[in-house]
Design brief:
With 182 residues, this protein is an alpha/beta fold. It is built from six helices and seven strands, in the order E-H-H-E-E-H-E-H-H-E-E-H-E. Helices cover 33% and strands 20% of the residues.
Length: 182
């Protein structure tokens, strides 16, 4: 009568699903994995508008709150194509100027997982943020620190990873759209 309900990364779900105790006892297993949540900047929003500032603020907050290790974190920022570079720059600047108080990921294993997923995402997207990691009162090598990383995918229609891979950490990909229908 046991049941395991899990939400998190697909990698962790597969490890749990294939655990000998789960298999041996035929435990029902439910997993919600790799939630690639999006935030959309409206086509009518321009730099300087309150909505523009709120969009940038929320993307940055979602990247840094709990080191991005939340199922509800924004993983894709959909932006009008004509504003992609200005939005990417605004997010990059916000990450650079803020005194980001962000802890490490939960484990070194999770850091390895996030970096592996980031490597996959970089096949289709270029990093645009240059946030620096300077842990305060902690050892970078022993902690599971990952810098907040904004990626830019200029060809979302031809992309695969940005639509299917979740880096369960402080990572977000900005993607352009050309119309509301798109």
């Amino acid at each position: 009568q046991d049941i395991v309900s899990f939400t998190g990364s697909a990698t962790t779900a597969n490890q749990l699903r294939s655990h000998p105790a789960v298999l041996r006892s035929a435990v029902r297993f439910i997993a919600e994995t790799d939630s690639i949540n999006s935030c959309v900047l409206g086509a009518d929003v321009a730099p300087g508008d309150p909505e523009f500032e709120a969009f940038v603020r929320e993307v940055v907050r979602e990247m840094t709150a709990k080191a991005g290790q939340k199922c509800t974190a924004i993983r894709k920022a959909l932006v009008p194509a004509g504003r992609l570079d200005v939005v990417a720059e605004a997010i990059r600047a916000a990450l650079g100027r803020e005194d980001v108080r962000m802890g490490p990921l939960a484990t070194l294993g999770q850091r390895r997982e996030v970096l592996a997923r980031l490597s996959e995402l970089r096949r289709e997207a270029d990093p645009v943020s240059d946030a620096r990691l300077e842990p305060v009162g902690a050892d970078f090598e022993r902690g599971a620190f990952v810098a907040p990383t904004l990626l830019l995918a200029r060809n979302p229609a031809g992309a695969q990873y940005v639509h299917t891979v979740e880096a369960f950490g402080p990572v977000c990909t900005a993607l352009p759209y050309t119309s509301t229908a798109e």
